[in-house]
Amino acid sequence: MVKNDSRNLPEEYQTGFAKFYGRTFFVNRDVLIPRIESERLIDIVKHYCHPELARPGRAGVSGSRPKIADIGTGSGCIGITLKLENPGCDVTLIDISEKALTVAKINAERLKVVVRIIKHDLLDNGDYDLVVANLPYIPHARISKLDPGVRNYEPHLALDGGVRGLELIFRLLYQNLSKFIILEIDDTHTLKDFVKYKKFYDIKLEKDLFQRNRYLILERK
């Protein structure tokens, strides 16, 4: 059971807004609070994929505009930011939570971006040039040890990644063969956890600002 203790209520939930990549996003307790680690995800997309995605007139997988999917979108901060930074791309926001998608829709309207919003478990049937995802990646046993402001208020559906924190990540990698996949992972995860995917992808790990393993970059061979 999630306990409520107003002493630990995060400021972002009190005000209803959070900063992300220089913009203000609406948030409530149906979505995770955007964090600086996810801002780095935007920079990684620019570093690895920007020439592939942002070139004017570049055709995507279907011969049309490049397509990006933001899976487990929550507030929509990642996908909406990618749309604003790469306006020539088509962006789809995907989440299994109807309440989270309501928040994402509010943010898309506030920031005046046109994106597709889909309720789905992981990917829909679309083909994408780039998939980004901040899926639940915290091992189940660690949930009870999280900071009270996170443990008691943020949605466990978006935090709990199963026994090893890899359940949904493995499901996504099994079903998807996009050109690029960029994921946030737990700092306990290493390249050894993903060795079985090396026959399909060139795989790299990037560290966050605190020098912890945080981002998995896969480029299809």
UniProtKB/TrEMBL annotation:
One of its GO terms (biological process) is methylation. Keywords: Methyltransferase, S-adenosyl-L-methionine, Transferase. Gene3D superfamilies: Vaccinia Virus protein VP39. It is an enzyme of class 2 (transferase). Its EC number is 2.1.1.297. Residues 67-137 form the Methyltransferase small domain. GO terms for molecular function: peptide chain release factor N(5)-glutamine methyltransferase activity. InterPro entries: HemK-like (IPR004556), N5-glutamine_MTase (IPR050320), SAM-dependent_MTases_sf (IPR029063), Small_mtfrase_dom (IPR007848). It catalyses: L-glutaminyl-[peptide chain release factor] + S-adenosyl-L-methionine = N(5)-methyl-L-glutaminyl-[peptide chain release factor] + S-adenosyl-L-homocysteine + H(+). It comes from the Bacteria. It holds the Pfam family MTS. This is peptide chain release factor N(5)-glutamine methyltransferase.
